[in-house]
Amino acid sequence: MKWTTSNIETLRSPLGVMVVIPAPHDNDLAKLDKEKEYVIEIKKKSKSRSLNANAYCWVLCQKIAEELSKNGYTSKEDVYKKAIRDCGIFITAGFTLQDKDDAIASWSKQGIGWFADDMGASAKVQGVYVVHLYKGSSVYNVEEMQRLIECLVDECHQLDIPLEPSEYIKSLIDWWGNEQSETRG
Questions:
Q1: 165: helix, coil or strand?
Q2: High-pLDDT (> 90) share of the chain, %
Q3: Which of 55, 108, 113, 140 is the most exposed place for a label (fewest CB within 10 A)?
Q4: Bridge partners for 92 per DSSP
Q5: pTM value?
């Protein structure tokens, strides 16, 4: 069972700290067995994050894809992946030869921006293969998101694609940062 509440109180007792949590009238609560163990998690409620910066990222990807498609088809997903790779935000990991392909496949299942570059055998550690693991923008912090959008904006400028004023773009990134802070706070 799960619910949202406020006015949580803590009480000190000889047994330790007791937590008093206002709960809804729920028949499931009456079924709790005091002899069994339960996992209780308390976390601060947060607003869902703004998708404006991420949505604008996809608008830019679409504009670039349309421009590049004049010379042969390019998808917005291809543009997005290239921008993710160009931004250089990745984790370097080492795997044995037998684990490498499974690790890459598992990582890539997380979304479009989640992909890996196999960098080959490690020059330092025998039997280890180096992989760069790129993460999707949905988990980017403010600096990472700003870098991604700046990368896409730069690409638009190189292709002479008209864009919104830079103040608008900055406001989207700032909003993204504020929303991310509240979500992680």
A1: coil
A2: 49
A3: 55
A4: 132
A5: 0.62
